[in-house]
## 1
Amino acid sequence: MKKVITYGTFDLLHNGHYNLLQRAKALGDYLIVGVTTEQFDEYRGKVNINDSLMARIENIRQTGFADEIIVEDHMGQKVEDVQKYGIDIFTCGSDWVGEFDFLKPLCEVIYLERTKDVSSTILREKNRKIIKLGIIGSGRIAKRFVPESKSVAGINIEAVYNPNFESAREFGERFELDTYTDDWDLFIKKIDAVYIASPHNTHYEYIKSALNAGKHVLCEKPMVLKKSHAEEVFALAKKQRLVLMEAIKTAYAPGFLKLLSIAKIGSIGKIYDVEACFTKLTNSNTREFKPEENGGSFTELASYPLLAIIKLLGKDYEDLRFDSFTDKNGIDIYTKAHLKYKDSIATIKVGLGVKSEGQLIISGSHGYIIVEAPWWKTESFETRYEDRSKNDKFFIKFRGEGLQYEVNEFVSMINAGNEKNQFKLTAGESITIAGVIESFLDNRTASRD
Ligand code: C2G
């Protein structure tokens, strides 16, 4: 019996897939089809898959060509499968010519001509209109955002707004945007959604203006500096039936999501303590050191540690305390914050003028999890125990600057209408973060007086 194997995502199963499976089956007597998991596709840089794994498997089954369907979930699996199943022929479309020649010592490799003018990407684009995005602000983070957002399908940056025209022009020309302007009305008319990357103080007004104009909003952290402002803007987004998301990139990254799952299944027992540190030595003539712009370590960096703490211990802390070192203008160059919960505690260390190890440690009754620096770009972590033989290591790729994860989530939230549950960073969690930042600023003002 001649055994053939082929692999693919098979999203929105179409003629190209059907033709390929038909010819693959005709190459032998028994056809095995490997269908990729979402995680494996994400790992190999394929995002925005429409159909679930189960739906894709069912579609393959219904073609009647597959004698066996397996799941492909890791690199190197093809070599394992060819040996395990005693495969005679490996086949796939001609878009992969040469890529799988490494299988030649194990079996025959045949690249079948790809069917022209049909692909899952074309179908996905047809089903969905491209979201036109405008950027508010043209500083450092906005410059990193543009190249990253290009790897996400379904969104295109059309315009940049800055009240300082020269700054908008320089940014617009550099990134070849159709519109760069200091005219708000012109800007807002051109787009469906905004990414707010302006100084902290300006976020609140921009969010309200954009939502009132019917635009979805992705806003840099800290989204707002007051709990009541956060409550107000989320209520407005709900009323307008628009997406409002805080751009804390870690919240949407696969490594961090995996870390949360591992912590929450009780792998280290009951969680008693979370310690998260983020320091970034920064030149003192930047915005971060300006009191009038609410600069300082806490407003600048604490969103990340707060995300980890609130995700792991919840929103209902009972007590909050801050210790800071400030510069001559009253800007905190280092802050240590303590959050006390009913039966757990947490510490935040943030610094713009003090350097420390950027790690996250979650301590539990059975063991602890250590996420190595920079933990906010979560890529690897370990669960450690008294009995070292039980220790385990996890590795999940973190792509680029990680901004593509938040853009991807933003796009899929918009496309889902109101049907998708935003669990990665909820409105309530963003409101809690704003509340902690507000307490910090109140505290700082009081200690200055
Ligand atoms: N295909 C085709 N004609 C098309 C579109 C796709 O012949 N118009 C083929 C592809 O070449 C591939 C199969 O259909 O062999 C599945 O395509 P995708 O779903 O796009 O999956 P792909 O990313 O190519 O999976 O392990 C995964 C595989 O290595 C590749």
## 2
Amino acid sequence: MNDILNIALPKGRLGEKVYTLFEKAGYPCPEIRETNRKLVFENPEAAVRYFWVKPSDVAIYVARGAADIGVAGKDILMEYEPDVYELLDLGIGKCSMIVAAAEDFSDDLQKTLRVATKFTEIARGYYASIGREIELIPLNGSIELAPIVGLSDVIVDITETGATLRENRLRIIDEVAPLSARLIANKAAFRFRQETIREIMESISTQTGETR
Ligand code: PRP
């Protein structure tokens, strides 16, 4: 029987911090720090296999059972509503989903608001909740450019340090939601591997509790 636990880690900014949490929780895989192109790492003694996954894809691997557990941003969970369990707020990767506009923007309620974003479902939900009619302009990146060159009136995007907004002379109009990294689990895996997954959760929540 293969009782190895498959864990999808978000590659990039957050990845190293997330791996350190798992390492300290008692699931080390030292090789993971030694190379930077390899994507799969296994430690049979600790019964874990880690994958480096593009952050926005972690939930897909977990929902489909290719990974038993993983770490995904709250932004992705809100946008795609994947069929997974959200187990724990890891308290890292903290940032905000915000609405921002050019410094001289003033909202004309007579007009449909043009909203540029990568997060179309979050933007749709937010404006529906305040009853504002919008036109969505889906983009894939560099969202801050849209209001500067007149492609949109506002953006719905993530801000962490605020540097990108500042350097592009945009101001925050509203916060849609605070965001952070979440531990997620495949629903069937959570049922069948509950003991192992709960052990990881408990050990990680002790650590994140200490750092908060
Ligand atoms: C994200 C986000 C902002 C930036 C915010 O972009 O979309 O552009 O980070 O960070 P800051 O508040 O610390 O400046 P990302 O780097 O993921 O690239 P993107 O332009 O492809 O969305």
